């Protein structure tokens, strides 16, 4: 099973992506987590990425694609979380999956309105202290999402296969909806 989960910052992709991958016993590939690990390790890639992340900007496509390309087809199944975030990344994913003859089974979009997203991110800032959860960066990330990532969702919609779920409510409620979406429609 190959599943992409989409949604703006704060939509709950990370929380739900981990749970879904565990439940289906497949890999959770989260570019945000991979980047934070690089930052924590102080690698060259991490130091470069940090400058973009702390501003709320996307890390350049060539860096992201270089980091994830080989892992896209490595495992039997995966939940992709935070990737693709640009049209160039979506095309890379298409090509990789076509080459390995392993098409995407689902793309699932978490719908949450902007006021709720900002509330959640401000909350997370106090709880986890992520360096990109400051008020200025949060707004920038929302704008970047609208400008660069929303078109990816439209691109997937034209290909069909996008299922939208309501991302509000408790994590358990959202997870139930997510499982229903994964099981339904093929
Ligand atoms: P969120 O979606 O909640 O903001 P993520 O953990 O997915 O958080 O991403 C955090 C940051 O990492 C992004 O704001 C961006 O700078 C960078 N990032 C993650 N994934 C990508 C990607 N696919 N392309 C470019 N930048 C990325």
Topology, element by element:
Blueprint: E1 2-6, H1 13-24, E2 27-30, H2 31-41, H3 44-55, H4 61-68, E3 78-81, H5 87-99, E4 106-111, H6 114-128, H7 135-158, E5 162-166, H8 171-183
Parallel strand pairs: 1-3, 1-4, 2-3, 4-5
Helix pairs in contact: 1-8, 2-3, 6-7
Bound molecules: adenosine-5'-diphosphate.
Short description:
The chain has about 190 residues and is an alpha/beta fold. The chain has eight helices and five strands; from the N terminus they run E-H-E-H-H-H-E-H-E-H-H-E-H. The site of adenosine-5'-diphosphate (ADP) has 18 residues, from helix 2 and helix 3.
Can you give a write-up of this model?
The chain has a single domain (2-176), classed as P-loop containing nucleotide triphosphate hydrolases (Rossmann fold, 3-Layer(aba) Sandwich). Helix content is 58%, strand content 13%. The chain has helices at 13-24, 31-41, 44-55, 61-68, 87-99, 114-128, 135-158, 171-183, and strands at 2-6, 27-30, 78-81, 106-111, 162-166. The longest helix has 24 residues, at 135-158. The radius of gyration is 16 Å and the shape is globular. The model has no long low-confidence stretch (mean pLDDT 92). Bound molecules: adenosine-5'-diphosphate (ADP). The site of adenosine-5'-diphosphate has 18 residues, from helix 2 and helix 3. Adenosine-5'-diphosphate binds next to helix 2 and helix 3.
């Amino acid at each position: 099973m190959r599943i992409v989960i989409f949604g703006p910052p704060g939509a709950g992709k990370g929380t739900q992506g981990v749970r879904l991958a565990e439940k289906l016993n497949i890999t959770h590939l989260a570019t945000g987590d991979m980047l934070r690990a690089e930052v924590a390790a102080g690698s060259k890639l991490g130091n470069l990425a940090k400058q973009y992340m702390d501003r709320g900007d996307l890390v350049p496509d060539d860096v992201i694609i270089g980091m994830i390309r080989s892992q896209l087809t490595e495992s039997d199944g995966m939940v992709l979380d935070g990737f693709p975030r640009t049209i160039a990344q979506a095309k890379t994913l298409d090509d990789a999956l076509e080459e390995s003859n392993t098409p995407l089974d689902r793309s699932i979009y978490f719908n949450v309105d902007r006021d709720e997203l900002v509330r959640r991110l401000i909350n997370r800032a106090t709880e986890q202290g992520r360096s990109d959860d400051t008020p200025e960066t949060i707004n920038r990330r929302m704008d970047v999402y609208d400008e660069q990532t929303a078109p990816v969702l439209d691109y997937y919609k034209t290909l069909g296969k996008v299922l939208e779920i309501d991302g509000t409510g408790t994590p358990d409620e959202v997870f139930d909806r997510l499982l229903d979406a994964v099981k339904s429609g093929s």
